[in-house]
Design goal:
It contains 13 helices and two strands; from the N terminus they run H-H-H-H-H-H-H-H-H-H-H-H-E-E-H. The chain has 395 residues and is mainly alpha-helical. Among the domains are: 132 residues, no CATH class; 85 residues, no CATH class. The protein has a two-stranded antiparallel ribbon with strand order 1-2. The N and C termini lie far apart (231 Å). 19% of the residues are buried.
Length: 395
């Protein structure tokens, strides 16, 4: 019986150095993620130490120090490890066998949650699955080391395809090349390549805008930009923001010139556009000015038509007035009739036979009547003289 106890003690003493040598080798744990922002390593589970081995506590302390010294160890892992060392051999053993694994699960989940920043839809869906109940430490480790990169590349392929569908010639060419390359090629395209290709397309687009635009303000700004050394971001901002601000300035100048000599409707519509939005000014130049000009022309045509009708009515009235004063004249007491208006009266005063009054337009009839009256008076005088001679002869 005593010989068995002595043999067990000898065996234990022989194994102790091997355990002390092997412990640091397992400190990082077989499930530690690859280099990157991942949780710190773990140590493999061990059986409850035999307290009869005097160096076991020191071995556990060294193991914990190696775990928390790892560059990827979280602050939570460091704090818990130091606390276990302070609490003694039993706390250190519990940390190595239980606590470090639980903390690693939490640390992996924190690291995985951070991946959601700027993640695509596929990666976000995968991240959500890692927070379901029952997910093991091994599954978390594999997702962080392997699966996340696969899902990210799938999202990159989808994004590159979208850019190819909406981009210019340079973006299409570079995007198709990236799709045929490696995951690193696709990541590089989305990080920098797409912007360089977009800058090339933006230069072409700016030149096209300059060629088709009539306003001086925008054209001058485009020339200045292209002749300089703009960054891809500056070119994109000019196309997305600045060009519309300069277009509106050119539109304001154009509207002011249009209404300077326009009709009432054109001036009214132009002032309303100047007081409105940039879109309203663009619409005025596109269609509004023409509609306002049409209204002004219609009003002008109507005014001319009204004036013509007024002039014609005046002419018709004058013509009617002249027609009412013409026609045959009638006289009383044996007066002669003729063309003219009113009545003509001829009265002999002292045998002179001159016409005393006449109204209307004459045509010589009055002179003839005057001559006949003179002849009649002369005949009456001759007759009176003959009678006087006969009377003298008889006496």
């Amino acid at each position: 019986m005593k010989l068995s106890r002595i043999a067990a003690a000898v065996t234990t003493a022989a194994l102790a150095p091997a355990v002390l040598i092997a412990s640091p080798a397992f400190a990082a744990g077989s499930d530690a993620p690859a280099a990157g922002h991942q949780p710190g390593p773990t140590a493999p589970d061990r059986s409850v130490p035999d307290q009869s081995v005097p160096d076991q506590a020191e071995d556990d302390r060294k193991t914990i120090l190696e775990i928390i010294a790892h560059p990827m160890a979280s602050q939570y892992m460091k704090t818990a490890g130091l606390q276990a060392i302070a609490d003694g051999p039993q706390a250190m053993r519990k940390f190595i066998e239980v606590d470090q694994h639980r903390i690693r699960i939490d640390d992996y989940r924190v690291a995985i949650a951070r991946l959601a920043h700027e993640a695509g839809p596929g990666l976000r869906e995968g991240i959500d699955k890692m927070f379901r109940d029952g997910v093991t430490l091994e599954q978390l480790r594999h997702f962080y080391e392997v699966t996340q990169h696969e899902l990210r590349d799938e999202d990159n392929k989808v994004e590159i395809s979208r850019l190819i569908g909406t981009g210019g010639p340079a973006v299409k060419e570079a995007g198709k090349k990236a799709l045929k390359g490696t995951p690193a090629d696709r990541a590089a395209f989305l990080k920098t390549g797409r912007f360089l290709a977009q800058a090339s397309d933006d230069r072409v687009e700016l030149a096209r805008i300059d060629e088709g635009w009539q306003g001086p303000i925008l054209s001058e700004a485009i020339s200045k930009l292209l002749n300089g050394s703009p960054t891809p971001a500056e070119l994109r901002h000019f196309l997305e923001v600045t060009q519309y601000e300069l277009r509106d300035q050119d539109n304001r100048v154009a509207i002011a010139k249009i209404i300077d000599a326009g009709g009432p409707e054109l001036v009214k519509a132009g002032l309303a556009a100047l007081a409105g939005t940039a879109a309203e000014r663009a619409e005025f130049l596109k269609t509004g000015q023409h509609e306002a000009r049409a209204k002004d022309q219609a009003a002008k045509d109507q005014a001319a038509k009204d004036q013509a009708a007024k002039d014609q009515a005046a002419k018709d009235k004058e013509k009617d007035g002249q027609g009412n004063g013409s026609g045959p004249a009638s006289g009383n007491g044996g007066t002669a009739g003729g063309s003219g208006s009113g009545n003509a009266a001829v009265t002999a005063q002292g045998g002179s036979g001159a016409a005393l009054a006449s109204t209307g337009a004459g045509d010589g009839t009055t002179l003839i009547a005057g001559g006949a009256g003179t002849a009649l008076v002369a005949g009456a005088g001759l007759l009176l003289a003959a009678r006087m001679r006969r009377t003298g002869a008889e006496s």
